[in-house]
TrEMBL record:
Protein's name according to its UniProt entry: 2-isopropylmalate synthase
Subunit structure: Homodimer.
Source organism: Staphylococcus marylandisciuri
Name of the encoding gene: leuA
Record-stated family: Belongs to the alpha-IPM synthase/homocitrate synthase family. LeuA type 1 subfamily.
Catalytic reactions of this protein: 3-methyl-2-oxobutanoate + acetyl-CoA + H2O = (2S)-2-isopropylmalate + CoA + H(+)
Length: 516
């Protein structure tokens, strides 16, 4: 019989930087990874799964850097049951305040037969060998039987018992393909706690995917059945339909404390900020109706609802927007707002920005204020995220010239500047202005690009709103996303397209560009 973790605290493991980055088209840069990890620490997660160090030098280096920077949060790295993977996690996390490892191997019949070509006995042996090996380096070893929910329950119990006997103290149960449903998933946790023999305290952890839209419900069922840890990502990003949306889990625990009687250490007020940051860096817009962090999550449209909320917000609001950091009473800035008002606004919105960067941002703010009557908090967030991005971007759209004729081909001239100040220019025609711009950019990068998705949204309401363009493209066999924000739709479209090219890792061949 297991002694389960006694506390009423539910641990939160964020895997945005590992499982979340497996979203098609999403690839975080080194700087973005550091900023995400710092924001996750501010949000209050217990563990950050920072990457899969053996998978690439980039992943190794960012796990290493994150391990050196974070002080309050455990940093974990993923490893297959392969010794060099475990060595890589050790090397990458050895300077962390709280280093952790997550070792996994698939256990379901389909994975054993089709993928690993291993018998059940061989899998048990590999679990024993590699968890034992990982324990040489780490006090706390997490083990996951991949595709656990399609593994025969009695064999799953054997796998977990083997891992526990070899020294694992965190057992994670991945619903790898998003196949299970709440009562079935909850039952796995109950059976494990009843069957596993140990006198050590074991943390049982839930890791769900959202293929049937049940990831959060399954995670909550795991909590009802004794899980002490939930794994997931911000905004639920991840492969296919994504992972458990952690913001939904922590708010579920908070709002229905009466039922779950468990708490997380998450600072709920940092939730919106965290979601916005991931959305921006991933290049994935949060759907307006998304629970907790969507733009409409706290809007009331119907007259009956509005009337009720005015009389008492609790008639239709089970939580306040302020609880998750959405400011409802924002004081917009305008053309006449000065440096001090701007500085105060940045501070109120929680930004800690150096005076030099503030000066650059203030100039950009003034240029927006010339075109837009009222600058809302959403404009400021967009400005900061956009500018941060542009400052670090390898390529920027320097100039854009578009000639529009009705009933004819459009033409565009694009000038791109790289980090060293070289400029590259080309022109093209197209059936529409954006096609013409994109053809010109393709000529500059000397690439043929497949545009997989293009969408445009207004940052705020009103005809003077800034445009936010998201693109998802495939270039040089790599998928990438890009975001562009500008008052002008064509410039926003060009910025998004160039950013996606840079994120896909394509470079401008200097021979082709016009360098000055
Ligand atoms: O979903 C999954 O099975 C995983 C494992 C690596 C734990 O992410
Ligand atoms: Zn996963």
């Amino acid at each position: 019989m297991t002694i389960s973790a006694s506390t009423d605290h539910i641990q939160i493991l964020d895997t945005t930087l590992r499982d979340g980055e497996q979203t098609p088209g999403v690839s975080f840069s080194f700087d973005e990874r550091i900023k995400i990890a710092q924001q996750l620490e501010r949000w209050g997660v217990d563990v950050i799964e920072a990457g899969f160090p053996a998978s690439s030098p980039g992943s190794f280096e960012s796990v290493k850097a994150i391990s050196q920077i974070l002080t309050q949060t455990a940093v974990s790295g993923l490893a297959r049951c392969v010794k060099k993977d475990i060595d890589a996690v050790y090397e990458a996390t050895k300077h962390a305040a709280m280093p952790r490892i997550h070792v996994f191997v698939a256990t379901s019949p389909i994975h054993l037969e089709a993928k690993l070509k291993l018998t059940q006995e061989e899998v048990l042996a590999t679990i024993h060998e590699h968890v034992t090996y990982a324990r040489n380096y780490f006090d706390i070893v997490q083990f996951s039987p991949e595709d656990a929910t399609r593994t025969e329950l009695d064999f799953l119990v054997k796998c977990v018992q083997t891992a526990v006997d070899a020294g694992a103290s965190v057992i994670n149960i991945p619903d790898t393909v998003g196949f299970t449903y709440p009562s079935e998933y909850g039952n796995i946790f109950r059976v494990l706690q009843e069957s596993i023999n140990t006198d050590r305290e074991i943390v049982y952890s839930a890791h769900c995917h959202d293929d049937l839209g049940l990831a959060v419900a399954n995670s909550m069922a795991a909590i009802e059945n004794g899980a002490n840890r939930i794994e997931g990502t911000i905004n639920g990003i991840g492969e296919r339909a994504g992972n458990t949306a952690l913001e939904e889990v922590v708010l579920g625990l908070h709002v229905r404390q009466d039922h779950y009687k468990r708490t997380s250490r998450i600072k709920l007020k940092e939730t919106k900020q965290t979601s916005d940051l991931i959305s921006r860096y991933a290049g994935l817009r949060v759907p307006k109706n998304k629970a907790i962090v969507g733009q409409n999550a706290f809007s009331h449209e119907s007259g009956i609802h509005q009337d009720g909320v005015l009389k008492n917000p609790e008639t239709y609001e089970i939580m306040t927007p302020q609880l998750v950091g959405v400011k409802s009473t924002e004081l917009p800035l305008g053309k006449l707002s000065g440096k001090h008002a701007f500085k105060d606004k940045l501070k109120n919105l929680g930004y800690d920005i150096s005076p030099d960067e503030q000066a650059i941002l203030f100039k950009q703010f003034k240029s927006i204020a010339d075109k837009k009557k009222s600058i809302t908090d959403r404009d400021i967030h967009a400005l900061i995220l956009g500018s941060e991005h542009e400052l670090n971007a390898p390529y920027q759209v320097e100039q854009l010239q578009v000639q529009f004729v009705s009933n004819g081909l459009q033409s565009a001239v694009v000038l791109i500047k790289d980090k060293d100040g070289h400029t590259y220019k080309d022109s093209s025609i197209g059936s529409g202005s954006i096609v013409a711009i994109y053809n010109a950019v393709d000529r500059i990068f000397n690439q043929t690009t497949e545009l997989l998705d293009y969408s445009i949204d207004a940052v705020t309401e009103g005809t003077d709103s800034q445009a936010e363009v998201h693109v998802h493209l495939k270039v040089n066999h790599t998928e990438a996303t890009g975001v562009g924000i500008d008052h002008d739709i064509l410039l926003a479209s060009a910025k998004a397209y160039v950013e996606a090219h840079a994120k896909a890792g394509v470079e401008i061949n200097e021979q082709k560009g016009v360098s000055s």
